[in-house]
Design goal:
The protein has about 525 residues and is an alpha/beta fold. A ten-stranded mixed beta sheet has the order 3-5-7-6-8-9-10-11-12-13, sandwiched between helices. A three-stranded mixed beta sheet has the order 1-2-4, with no helix packed on it. Strand 1 and strand 2 form a beta hairpin. The two termini are about 30 Å apart. The relative contact order is 0.12.
């Protein structure tokens, strides 16, 4: 179920790219690799399909990203690069891969800058897309409006996905000078951050003021970069939306899983795997026993996220993080209603027992059907609290011991109503529903539009100053206060852990009273 939520997150109201206004001139910039020609719009200029690493093909498959090549002349940057290898993901919001055909040659990024020129360098916001580490692309999100309205430079990017980005195997570890494998997708993201540090000044961005932000798998990646020693100095603020603190497999267990997967393809060594066509690998990667996620390898990721935070072993930059009020309802909808069936009252305890085994009685006692409008809403609350809210509350608490830590809960219960999805219960504010509020893609009620304006202001204000400040919006206090972002009113609460039954989901020594 969690996998379903992570995969759908990139679609949960992401902004589909809109063609820019008719160009009045042709903006050109010079990077250390060559010149680029972008597209000028009325409010933002776009530079698309910029290579930030060499194509990871042939002998570079399952290798750390290599530097991109130089080019002569002026490179066309008016069209996005290929999305990374992934299966089709048809949803009510479109194909999450965005435009283009998935390919192994996919390490491209996009830069969006305000059309209005500035005498000073602007803050930079680097977006890491969600999609369960198996689907999605940077181009699916148009950063133009966020750039123009927030007076920031926005970078979106692709990174290797699925088996191409996260395969661990003893043979790959043997090739590595450090004896580790996997985490290639994370290394791609770090390569993109290095590219930003080296090149973003050409676009009017400040390499000394970079905010890395992402949602779901992208939010998890943000927290993984917080504990990775390799990202020191690459960013200066971090925003993790619905994705911090997910437990990850160890290098040892991930290599065993990878070796078993390779054996299912008839491969005992890496040479055999590299000889396989990409399409065959992609098909095999859909195995239900495969788990394509980062791993704790002791190098890129030295520790589990919560362990590193407990020890203070992370980059002490200001962090803004949070969840949506009804994270789990999208998973319930995709598992039941959108799959052509309904969760019944009799099926609710069966589902809880299947997920939680001998803990089910205690969980059902805390989440009785009588407290919820439907079985789907009850199961949604269980998934929200167990898989998102309490983990993120814990990471916000741990960070607060070392740095400025801000937490939010997005609570627009009508955030997805405009999609009219065929579900038999209110979707509320599910996983991914806050994305378009951040990117400036809301056209709803006056109250929703006002909330979206304030959220865009909070996010970009944080990028400017390290404090989530927005003109005309309520003050945002540090943890333990949690900013509740709702169209009715923006308020602060100190009862978030109790509201989400966190004493049930966290070890007793970690749950706040």
């Amino acid at each position: 179920m969690l996998s379903g939520a992570l995969m759908l997150s990139a679609a949960g109201l992401a902004v589909t790219p809109v063609p820019p206004a008719a160009a009045t001139d042709t903006p050109t910039v010079t990077t250390r690799y060559g010149q680029l020609r972008g597209t000028a719009g009325q409010t933002a200029d776009d530079y698309l399909g910029i290579p930030y690493a060499a194509p990871p093909v042939g002998g570079l498959r399952w290798k750390p990203p290599a530097a991109p090549g130089h080019w002569s002349g002026v490179r066309d940057a008016t069209r996005p690069g290929n999305p990374c290898m992934q299966t089709g993901s048809s949803t009510p919001w479109g194909d999450l891969a965005g435009p283009g055909t998935p390919s192994e040659d996919c390490l491209y990024l996009n830069v969006h800058t305000p059309a209005e020129r500035s005498l000073r360098d602007r803050p930079v916001m680097v977006w890491l897309h969600g999609g369960g580490f198996t689907i999605g692309s940077g181009t699916f999100y148009d950063g133009g409006e966020l750039a123009a309205r927030g007076d920031v430079v926005v970078v979106t990017l692709n990174y290797r996905l699925g088996a191409f980005g996260y395969l661990s195997h003893p043979g790959l570890a043997g090739e590595s000078p450090e004896g580790v494998s996997g985490n290639y997708g994370l290394l791609d993201q770090q390569a993109a951050l290095r590219w930003v540090r080296q090149n973003i000044a050409a676009f009017g961005g400040d390499p000394g003021n970079v905010t890395v932000f992402g949602e779901s798998a992208g939010g998890g990646s943000v927290c993984q970069h917080l504990v990775s020693p390799r990202t020191l100095g690459l960013y200066h603020r971090a925003i993790a939306q619905s994705g911090c603190g997910f437990p990850l497999p160890t290098q040892e267990s991930h290599q065993r899983t990878g070796a078993d997967w390779a054996a299912s393809l008839g491969c005992a060594d890496v040479a055999c795997l590299r000889a396989k066509p990409a399409g065959e690998l992609l098909s095999a990667a859909q195995s239900p026993t495969a788990r394509w996620v980062p791993n704790v390898d002791g190098r890129v990721l030295p520790l589990q996220i919560t362990d590193a935070l407990e020890q203070g072993r992370f980059h002490h930059v200001p962090v803004l993080q949070g969840t949506t009020a009804d994270e789990g309802r999208l998973t319930v909808a995709s598992t039941y209603d959108l799959a052509g069936r309904r969760l019944t009252p009799a099926g609710y305890p069966v589902a809880v027992r299947a997920l939680y085994g001998d803990r089910a009685d205690a969980i059902l006692a805390r989440y009785p059907l009588s407290d919820h409008g439907s079985p789907a809403e009850a199961l949604g609350a269980v998934l929200t609290d167990s898989q998102f809210s309490c983990l993120q509350s814990r990471t916000a608490e741990l960070m607060a011991d070392h740095t400025r830590s801000y937490q939010y809960e997005f609570a627009d219960r009508g955030a997805m109503d405009h999609l009219n999805l065929p579900v038999g219960f209110p979707l509320g504010a599910p996983h991914g529903s806050e994305i378009r509020y951040v990117f400036g893609g809301v056209s709803g009620t006056p109250a929703q539009n006002a909330l979206a304006d304030r959220m865009l202001g909070y996010w970009t204000g944080f990028a400017h100053t390290g404090v989530p400040y927005a003109v005309g919006a309520p003050r945002w206090h540090q943890y333990p206060k949690v900013q509740v972002l709702a169209p009715e009113a923006i308020t602060a609460t100190t009862t978030f852990p109790q509201d989400h039954e966190c004493d049930l989901w966290l070890p007793s020594d970690q749950a706040r009273s």
